[in-house]
Amino acid sequence: MNGLGDLRGLVGVAVILGVCGLISEDRARFPWRLALGAILAQAALVYLLFATPAARAGLSLAGGGVDALAGSAQAGARFVFGFLAGAPDQPYPVRDPALLYILAFRVLPVILVICALSALLWRWGILRWLTQAFGFVFQRTMGLRGAPALATAATIFMGQVEGPIFIRSYLAGLTRSEMFLLLCVGMSCVSGSTVVAYATILNGVLPHAAAHVLTASLISAPAGVLLARILVPRDPALERSDSFDLTTAKTYESAIDALMRGTGDGLQIVLSVAATLVVFVALVSLTDRLLGLLPPLMGAPLSVERILGAVFTPLAWLIGAPWREAGAAGGLLGAKLTLTEFTAFIDLAHLPAGVLSERTRVIMTYALCGFANIASVGINVAGYAILVPERRSEIMGMVWKAMMAGFLATCMTGAVVGVLPASLYQG
What we know:
single chain, mainly alpha
């Protein structure tokens, strides 16, 4: 990695902050201290996790746990779906083993298992303790009140709508800035269930894939908080009360109840992911067919992938991708925004080895790891309409801006990661 790449990543961060500052609802209240602290915290956390031997050992252990969870989920899928889930004994000769990798039977079952396990860990108090710990950190370091701090922490583990469920009784009393912050953080991170799914997709393609995906979802939360505070600054006068009681959060009657309800929640997520992928991939295919009616451009037919690659090439270059790789990287960013990060990670895994360098693959893993996409706009509107129906119109007025903030937050995370030495992620 050369010095130009380092400087370009810093320029990318500055451009992202500048764009958000220009469209802020109050440009005069730019949170300079928060901006500096969030960026330094991201860089320090990545360096700590990958440079410290103990932390690297912990990440390796976490990676092994992810592999174990994926393997266990695969065992359950094989029991139900048999050879369709990649059983070693196939009923027919296999010419191309790659064709045995069927997303519906190899990745989506992982989400079911992790959702059930997450509910069980919450019932046992383990996930509750982790959420409280992270909530305390957000409260003390980023100036969040108790309820938004807990929801921000829960979002990292549970997801963009599932996280705010834990403070459902407090949502109506949040300020506009706090509500927008929850939307942004939800778009900036992914859930624990999808972290394992993405690591499964990237396994064998990117070294330490599980460690990178876990770290990406964790460190994008401060970026989401930062961009939310820039776009919709907080009003301290409206955030006077900070009383919060965790006993009002989600509870389960027993371990079995947690497993069953967690499985039910996971099933809804699986169906939503599968349906979203079918619909959006189909729409892109339809769009490609319509674009194919136009005259070829530069010797090739127009397609959504080519258009998005061209649109997001400058952004991919700004966050650290070399210019010769920026077109492919920009296409991944476009796929993430329009087709969900699930599709983008699948595309990243299927790229030929020479298209992106290992460093760029690392940067793009962080830049793609967030729920900021068009489908999530609908998910958030529907979810918050149930959680806090009296503020539905307010949510609809902010959700598109939150999607943009979440998208830029993960890009900012990728730029920060790209600034750090490439040797940090090797070995």
